[in-house]
Structures are given as C-alpha cells and as structure tokens.
Write a structure and sequence with these properties.
Elements lengths: L1 H24 L3 E4 L20 H7 L5 E4 L2 E3 L4 E2 L5 E6 L4 E4 L6 E4 L9 E6 L4 E3 L2 E3 L18 E3 L4 E3 L2 E3 L2 E2 L6 E2 L2 E3 L2 E3 L2 E5 L3 E2 L2 E3 L2 E3 L2 E4 L3 E2 L2 E3 L2 E3 L2 E5 L3 E2 L2 E3 L2 E3 L2 E2 L6 E2 L2 E3 L2 E3 L6 E2 L2 E3 L2 E2 L17 E3 L4 E4 L27 E2 L2 E2 L8 E6 L6 E2 L4 E2 L27 E10 L5 E10 L4 E2 L7 E3 L4 E9 L2 E5 L4 E3 L3 E5 L15 E4 L2 E3 L13 H10 L21
Parallel strand pairs: 1-2, 2-6, 3-7, 5-8, 6-9, 7-10, 8-11, 9-12, 10-13, 11-15, 12-16, 13-17, 14-18, 15-19, 16-20, 17-21, 18-22, 19-23, 20-24, 21-25, 22-26, 23-27, 24-28, 25-29, 26-30, 27-31, 28-32, 29-33, 31-34, 32-35, 33-36, 41-51
Antiparallel strand pairs: 4-5, 37-38, 39-40, 41-47, 42-43, 44-45, 44-48, 45-46, 48-49, 48-50, 52-53
Length: about 550
C-alpha cells in the first residue's frame, strides 16, 4: 500500500513538472499589423496578423507575446473597471511590444474627459507594455476615483510594467494624467495633465525616465511613488509641488519646475543624491533632503548637501549633463542598489568610486583615432575588416574583459585603451573596438568612449594584440567633456616619435605590426609563431593583416 501511495505521488509530481515544462515551451507570439488584409485568429504570423491590438491580447495565453508593427492604432477597447474603456486592456500576464519603438507605433485614446473618453492602456499584474507612444488618452469625470477617473494614458496594477514608452497629451480628471501606478522604465512623460494630483504620474516606481511639461493642481510632474535616475523639467502645479509632491526621489534632477503656492521643485518629498535647482516658487518646501545640490541649504536638518550651482552643460537647452568642474561630481552617497544600476543615459551609475548627484553620472568622453599597419590598405586608405565573424564576443584583454551583445559592422579588431598618470600608473583601462576608418568605438559601435578619471592630465596608451603599443607624446589635459586625440596625423603624436610608429602613406601614421607574443618587442619568436600558424584560419595572433588567416602576407 505504501509503495502504491509513493508511486501515485511520484506520478503526480511528474505530471506537475511536465505541465510546467509544457507551459514554459508553449509560449506563442501573436502578430498585429494595421495594414494586414488577411487577419485570421490566432494571428500567429504576419500574413494572418490582426489589425486590432486587443484582438491579439484576447487570444493570447499567459506568457505569450503580442508583437505590433508600425502604425497608429485607434480601434478596439475593453473596460476592466466600471465603464472606463481602455483602447488596449492587457488583462493577463503577457508582453505587448512594438517592433520599432514609440516613434512609429502609437496607441491612440480618445478625449476629452467624460463618459465617452477612452484610456490608452490598462496593464495588469506581471504584464508588460513596451515601445509605444500613448497619446490622447482620457478618463471619465465620474465613477470610481482611482479606477475610472485616474490614469489617462495608462493605468497599471501594482506589478504591471511599462517600458520604453512615450506618454504625451493624456489627461485624468483625478490622478495620474500620464500614468497611474505600476513600474515605468525608460519612459518619457510629456504634456499630460491631471485635475487633481500627478500630472505626469501618480504612484508606482519610475526609473530612467523623463517628466517634462506636465501639469496638475498638486504634483505637476509626479505625486507619490519612487523615482530613480529621472529628470523633472518644466512641470507646473497650481498649488504645491511643481516637480514632485509627496514622493521619494533618488539621483534625480529637478529644474525649471514651478508652483504658484510653493515647492516649485519638490513639496513634502524625500530626496537623496538629487539636484534641485532653478525652480520657482522655491526649490523645495517641507522636504527631507540629504546629499543634494540645492538652495537654500536645508537647515537645521540634512546631511551632505551643497548650495553651489550644479553647472549643467547647457541648462537653457535642457542638457542636464554635468560639466567636468561641477561640484555635484562624486558628491553623492553610495547605496547598494547603485552598483547594479545605470543612470538616465544607461551608463554605470557609479564611476570613480563615488556616485554623482543628479540623474546623469559624469564621465569624460575620449574621441580617439588610430591605425594598424597590418590591415591598412594604401589603395582604399582604410583598414580591412575581414576578421568578421572571427571576432570574439569577449575582449582578449584581461584588464577589461568586455563582452559584445552583437558585433558592430566595419570592425577591424579589439584594442585596449589605457589612461596613465604622469607617473605612468594606469588609472583606467577599457576594451574598445577599432573600425575601418581608425575610429575607436565602444561595444555598441559609438564613438566618444567614456573614460573614468578625474580632471587632470594623463597619457593615452593604445594597445593591440599583435602590434606594438603606443603612448601619446605628451600628457593630455582632461578638462573639457570630450577629449580628442588622433594618433594618425603625425609622428609627433607618439611618445618616441618616428621610433614608435610607422608612416603608412604620406602624412598617415599608425602602429607597427609584428608584436605577436605581446611582449612589447618584435623578435624572432614572433616569426616562429607566424610560421607555426600558417595555413590556419580564425582569430589568430599570427594574422597580422586581419584577413582571418595566416599566410605569406603576414
């Protein structure tokens, strides 16, 4: 009998495990294309895609994805609470995302506020809405205060997620003109309004987001909730809290917000590592402020605050990145969450050991250029990039083993950039990519690589796995945000002059090839390695011309 019971329990456990496995592997994708002419449920490919997002949501099951093509989506709708219609009601734990982002994919609600209003979207627990513009959404003027009169652009349950969306021109009779509740990541909320509180958003958590030009009676930008690495600009309140009202803000920048009665930047908020400057009336009122840049100095309470002007790159044009001499750099308080977080640009939240105040972490940018003799072609005046698919995902340099999500086009190889102080100590190093033109790029293929150093003068070092390393002729001053150095324009750019570089063609200079074993010299050992690798293909030390093989040309 005991054996039979145990056998039955084992079978039950196996059935549960099998059901879970089937659930994991059976997630489907349903397609939406406003231009499709052959819509057929369950819309499992582009040929049979539906033209209405709600139709795809309705046939989806838990864990599925609804993929939406470019277009302005004006049809469909469902009420979740009362009679408040949502253009798209994501009422199950699925992901609804656009193919090409919010600039070309719009969910259009219907205003004005009243019984005929249509909210843009509803997002239930564990559901995700990603990559849309939500605009012209509105709420009822009667009915449930929270569920029917709040959230003109989107209304989220507590664990609903909205990411990479633009919420603009939405309105709510009560709270959250743009958004109510949930979690918003990498979103822009602009020109939304609420008759009560939270013109941009009410409640929830906002991270790496921008709130611009929203309005409400209280909390023009936001009311309640938690904001991390956000900017709040030109939001306004009729009474209190032009930027934020009764909210908690970490590493945010509040500038140019206004409130008629008071607390133009923040009212009854908790702020840490924030910049609250150039707001009217008052930068803050009734708030708890620590490690912030604001004026006047919070007194008698508050720790680590400064009143110096923050020194933005261009506050007139709302470029709120910090200048190299900003007092906000390295002036914040490090917290555990920051070590895995990013700033509003998506860059590491902590550089040089200490967090900056505000939404953007400062880093010098280096605009660097260099050429390698091996792959340089004097006919085309560029380097070949035939190493192609042989390029490893992980950098070969142990000093910074960066990994690529995908290989950018026209890449010749990995190089290592080092920054050394005037005593030749390496203070920063970065694995980066070298393209055909000689531009040094980050792992996404973007020029102007970040350099994590303090203001000062430093030598720049460029290393390659089978070319001799080079050093800038003189220390380079890191005082401007972007530091430029071009190793290609002359031998005077090199420490050691003509002994440290080679003229590739008249007026064009580059690194000397042949340091195959990476010992900083060209010796007979290098030739031995090349001879041993002859006839081999791939990413090889002996492949001096970067054509993906070792032969007589190397």
């Amino acid at each position: 009998m005991v054996k039979q019971v145990m056998k039955l329990r084992t079978q039950q456990v196996m059935l549960v495990a099998l059901a879970a496995l089937v659930s994991c592997v059976s997630a489907d994708t349903h397609y939406v294309d406003i231009n499709c002419a052959m819509s057929t449920p369950p819309y499992t490919n582009w040929v049979t895609a539906t033209t209405v997002i709600q139709d795809a949501v309705d046939v989806a099951e838990d864990g599925d994805t609804v993929l939406v093509a470019d277009g302005v989506y004006t049809e469909g709708g469902m009420a979740v609470y009362g009679t408040m219609t949502n253009r798209v009601a994501i009422n199950k734990p699925i992901t609804v995302r656009s193919v090409n982002g919010p600039s070309v994919t719009t969910i259009l609600g219907r205003g004005p506020m009243g019984n005929g209003a249509v909210r843009c979207a509803y997002v239930t627990n564990s559901a995700v809405l990603s990559g849309f513009t939500l605009t012209n959404g509105a709420t009822h003027t009667s009915g449930d205060y929270t569920k029917e009169r709040s959230g003109g652009g989107v209304w989220c349950e507590s664990s609903g997620v909205v990411s990479s969306c633009t919420l603009s021109g939405n309105s709510a009779y009560s709270s959250g003109g743009g958004a109510y509740g949930g979690t918003l990541n990498n979103c822009t909320l602009t020109g939304n309004s609420a008759g009560g509180v939270g013109g941009g958003a009410c409640g929830g958590t906002l991270s790496q987001s921008k709130l611009v030009g929203n309005t409400a009676n209280h909390g023009g930008g936001v009311k309640g909730g938690v904001l991390n690495n956000c900017t709040l600009m030109r939001n306004s309140a009729v009474y209190y809290g032009g930027g934020a009202y009764e909210s908690t803000l970490h590493n945010c920048t509040l500038m140019g917000n206004s409130a008629t009665t008071g607390g133009g930047g923040a009212y009854t908020c908790t702020l840490k590592n924030c910049i609250v400057y150039y707001n009217s009336r008052h930068n803050y009122l009734g708030s708890t402020i620590d490690y912030c840049c604001t004026t006047p100095l919070p007194s008698p309470f508050g720790t680590g605050n400064i009143t110096n002007e923050p020194l933005f790159i261009n506050s007139t044009n709302e470029n709120l990145h910090l200048l190299p001499n900003s007092p906000c750099i390295n002036a914040g308080l490090n917290e555990d969450w920051m070590f895995t977080s990013v700033d509003l640009d998506g860059s590491p939240r902590i550089r040089n050991g200490a967090v900056d105040m505000g939404a953007y972490e400062f880093a010098f940018k280096a605009d660097l250029s260099g050429l390698l003799k091996g792959p340089y072609n004097t006919n085309t005046h560029v380097m070949i990039s035939a190493v192609g698919t042989n390029l490893p995902v992980t950098s070969p340099y142990a000093a910074d083993a960066t990994e690529l999500d995908s290989s950018p086009t026209n890449v010749v190889d990995w190089v290592l950039v080092e920054v050394q102080d005037t005593n030749w100590n390496t203070v920063a190093s970065s694995s980066v990519l070298l393209d055909e033109q000689g531009s040094i790029c980050d792992s996404d293929g973007a020029a102007n690589i970040p350099v994590e150093v303090s203001s000062g003068s430093y030598y720049l070092v460029l290393r390659h796995r089978n070319h001799l390393s080079v050093i800038s002729a003189q220390p380079v001053a890191f005082t401007n945000t972007v530091v430029s150095y071009d190793f290609t324009t002359g031998s005077d750019k090199y420490f050691g002059g003509t002994n440290a570089c080679v003229e590739l063609e008249p007026g064009v200079w580059g690194l000397i090839s042949g340091d195959v074993d990476g010992d900083g010299r060209i010796t007979p050992v290098a030739r031995i390695i090349v001879e041993r690798q002859k006839g081999m293909t791939g990413y090889l030390q002996g492949d001096l011309n970067m054509d993906g093989k070792v032969d007589g040309d190397d």
